């Protein structure tokens, strides 16, 4: 295999029924992709619609939270000094002059020797400087017996204790979590600016394909890639457009390639078969920068531009499709959505139970299982056997300069 440098579409010849004369390295393919994948512009969305999206600007609080001193426990608002020396064997009595609930302000000032019954979250009455918890007290009609003492400020939440005015509470680039929405709501945010989610057109081609979920019959098979790609795109922050299977007709495929979307994914029709029209269409109407990559599976993958939009060619074989998505398409979609381009898979290190063989000059994506004996290789080949990925716990990447790993070697395992 020969490393090739990404080039413009006009240098790509029709490879149908001929095979690839050369293949681009994964490294060069990623370099081209990173140069053309861009974070999208921002848009304003309501707080309720912002979960999972990426902030496009810093959020600075214009208010203190809380904006008043409040009780942090149910009990009595008191002068701390009035409780000094109180104990179960030495209870001290205070006069109860009223009650304050959350959302209300006590109308009078608490004097020495007095207490106000208070609930958690209610404002501390003027004059009081501590809260005596209910479990340290004993109510007796119009007075309360203190069975313990509290220090000044005890069980009192201060102004700005949660959020201080002028503080940057969330930074641009953050993917919003449920608790972030709660914090935004607490400072009065009704809408936020986020990175717009990329619209991703999924083009599934193949006259042999049946709609997703249809039992296979005759010489036709159900579409596995469509549902898989939709779930992957949604995971990575994109909005999917997938109206159905596109016939293996150049005019139909070209029309789909020009659908209104930010990124185009073509699954099937991307290799060197007679019915693989997508590469030729992109070459003719846009730029096919890369076609054929030195990796297994997914070697027929490609990428280019059509109408200034990124187009990624993913093989039709399901495992190859998944692998090409993981390496290339997912990276572009996450970048467009403002997320980290890196794989969203956690990783650990494990010891190989048996050797994992590869070939110099290509990157291999090896499915593995985690067993009591260690990391067990399942498959590198078998691009059409999707069940190998469901049996797998994850995968190991073998770099192009390696012939694989010996039994007992420690390897980096990415977990599905």
Topology readout:
Blueprint (H helix, E strand, L loop, with lengths): L25 H11 L5 E5 L12 E2 L9 E2 L3 E4 L13 E9 L13 E5 L11 E4 L3 E4 L2 E4 L9 E2 L10 E3 L7 H9 L4 E5 L3 E6 L4 E2 L10 E2 L2 H11 L3 E3 L8 H8 L5 E5 L10 H8 L1 E5 L3 E2 L5 E5 L2 E6 L3 H19 L10 E5 L4 E2 L5 E9 L2 E6 L7 H5 L2 E5 L5 E2 L4 E6 L1
Parallel strand pairs: 5-6, 13-16, 13-17, 14-15, 17-21, 19-24
Antiparallel strand pairs: 1-12, 2-11, 3-10, 4-6, 4-7, 5-9, 8-9, 18-20, 20-21, 22-28, 23-27, 24-25, 24-26, 26-28
Helix pairs in contact: 1-6, 3-6
Give your account of this protein's structure.
It is a single chain. The protein has 416 residues and is α+β, with helices and mostly antiparallel strands. The chain has four domains: 172 residues, MoaB/Mog-like domain (Molybdenum Cofactor Biosythetic Enzyme, Chain A, 3-Layer(aba) Sandwich), CATH 3.40.980; 56 residues, Molybdopterin biosynthesis moea protein, domain 2 (Alpha-Beta Complex), CATH 3.90.105.10; 88 residues, Molybdopterin biosynthesis moea protein, domain 3 (Molybdopterin biosynthesis moeA protein, domain 3), CATH 2.170.190; 69 residues, Beta-clip, CATH 2.40.340.10. Helix content is 17%, strand content 29%. A six-stranded mixed sheet has the order 7-4-6-5-9-8, with no helix packed on it. Helix 1 runs parallel beside helix 6.
């Amino acid at each position: 295999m020969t490393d090739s440098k990404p080039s413009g579409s006009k240098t790509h010849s029709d490879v149908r029924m001929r095979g690839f004369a050369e293949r681009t390295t994964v490294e060069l393919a990623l370099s081209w992709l990173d140069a053309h994948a861009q974070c999208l512009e921002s848009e304003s969305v309501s707080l309720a619609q912002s979960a999972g999206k990426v902030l496009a600007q810093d959020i600075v609080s214009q208010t203190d939270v809380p904006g008043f001193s409040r009780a942090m426990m149910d009990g009595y608002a008191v002068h701390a000094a009035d409780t000094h020396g109180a104990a179960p064997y030495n209870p001290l009595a205070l006069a109860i002059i009223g009650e304050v609930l959350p959302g209300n302000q006590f109308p009078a000032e608490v004097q020495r020797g007095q207490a106000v019954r208070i609930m958690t979250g209610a404002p501390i009455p003027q004059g009081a400087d501590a809260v005596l918890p209910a479990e340290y007290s004993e109510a007796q009609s119009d007075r309360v017996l203190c069975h313990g003492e509290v220090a000044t400020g005890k069980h009192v939440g201060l102004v700005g204790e949660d959020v201080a005015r002028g503080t940057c509470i969330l930074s641009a680039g953050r993917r919003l979590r449920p608790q972030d929405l709660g914090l935004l709501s607490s400072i009065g945010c009704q809408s936020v600016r986020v990175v717009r989610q990329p619209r991703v057109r999924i083009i599934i081609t193949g006259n042999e394909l049946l709609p997703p979920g249809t039992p296979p019959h005759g010489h036709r098979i159900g579409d596995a890639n469509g549902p898989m790609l939709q779930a992957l795109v949604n995971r990575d922050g994109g909005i999917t457009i997938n109206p159905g299977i596109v016939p293996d007709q150049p005019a139909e495929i070209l029309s789909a390639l020009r659908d209104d979307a930010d990124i185009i994914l073509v699954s099937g029709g991307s290799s060197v078969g007679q019915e693989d029209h997508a590469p030729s269409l992109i070459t003719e109407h846009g730029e096919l920068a890369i076609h054929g990559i030195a990796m297994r599976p997914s070697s027929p993958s490609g990428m280019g531009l059509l109408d200034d939009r990124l187009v990624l060619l993913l093989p039709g074989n399901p495992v190859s499709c998944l692998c090409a998505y993981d390496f290339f398409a997912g990276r572009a979609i996450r970048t467009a959505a403002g997320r980290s381009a890196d794989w969203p898979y956690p990783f650990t290190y494990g010891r190989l139970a048996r050797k994992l063989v590869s070939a110099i000059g290509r990157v291999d994506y090896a499915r593995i299982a985690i067993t009591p004996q260690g990391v067990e290789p399942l498959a590198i080949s078998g691009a059409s056997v999707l069940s190998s990925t469901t049996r797998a716990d994850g995968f190991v990447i073998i770099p192009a300069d390696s012939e694989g790993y010996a039994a007992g070697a420690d390897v980096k395992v990415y977990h599905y």
